């Protein structure tokens, strides 16, 4: 289920300990431009109260021992890290090598980062041979994107398969165009999502409806 509302308000309606994992792609590097100009920590600090409340709500709704994935980049990670460790145990920083070459003059970027954290003590849900570098090609150039920062379904599905079981519930507080919801449907999971932008909410609703219809056809 996806809701067109502020995630901080929406998450208050979720019961304590009712979510099995969190996978999200929140806005990051706010203020950066395509020519590589960086935002400052002063810019990011405007978001500090939001993130503290968000992480607090995540910890309340997430079951003990379960996993969190947060897509980010090298500029935003140092800002998020000291905030998230108040509520979660950061286990690793996954490097997503997407195969593109981003704009820039000082070593053009070809990767993004994913913070991997747990709600307290946790056991591994995925195989012991998993590496912290994920080579998954971006969809850019092969399909029309519904959102400027839309992540490949393969990437979101990998997170979901690695950290949940069929029938469990995935939370995404920043649903965007609905990729996490579609990935959850494709892998047999339930989901809760929030998206404040009405336009992207409508796109997400359409994509989720299409994914549900496709899933229903596969079952019959």
Biggest sheet overview: 8 strands, mixed
Q: Count the beta strands.
A: 8
**Low-confidence sequence ranges:** 31-37
Q: Judging from the principal axes of the Cα atoms, what is the shape?
A: globular
SS strand fraction: 15-25%
Give a written overview of the molecule.
There is one protein chain. It contains seven helices and eight strands; from the N terminus they run βαβααβαβββαβαβα. The protein is of the alpha/beta class and 220 residues long. Residues 31-37 have low confidence and may be disordered. Helix content is 33%, strand content 22%. α5 packs across α6 and α6 (179-186) runs parallel beside α7 (198-219). It has an eight-stranded mixed beta sheet, with helices on both faces.
In short:
This protein is of the alpha/beta class and 220 residues long. The chain is built from 7 helices and 8 strands, in the order E-H-E-H-H-E-H-E-E-E-H-E-H-E-H.
Key attributes of the depicted protein:
220 residues; alpha/beta; eight-stranded mixed beta sheet; 33% helix
